[in-house]
Write a structure and sequence with these properties.
Layout lengths: L5 H12 L4 H10 L4 H13 L1 H33 L9
Length: about 90
């Protein structure tokens, strides 16, 4: 039986972040000679890792940032096309 080393742990985490389901990850590990129970335990350990949770939070923040930038870009294009006149504040 092969033990799951750090390079495989990194592969597991990467695939979880990319959205692969746990069973397909386990199937790949078993196909590479790992025991099914050890593979499941490795996937579960990765899911529970605070490092992975931190990365997922950061990924979500970046996705939100990208979404907001695309909205601002769209608004900027609309404003430029409409030619909305601006006035100086009276005071």
């Amino acid at each position: 039986m092969i033990s799951i080393d750090d390079s495989w742990r990194g592969w597991i985490a990467e695939n979880l972040v990319l959205g692969s389901d746990g069973e397909s990850i386990v199937a790949t590990l078993v196909a590479h000679g790992f025991d099914a129970d050890a593979a499941r335990a490795g996937v579960e350990a990765a899911r529970l890792s605070p490092y992975l949770a931190g990365f997922v939070r950061m990924r979500n923040r970046l996705r939100k940032r990208d979404w907001m930038l695309s909205i601002y870009g769209g608004l900027h294009r609309i404003r430029g096309e409409a030619g909305v006149p601006r006035r100086a504040a009276s005071g």
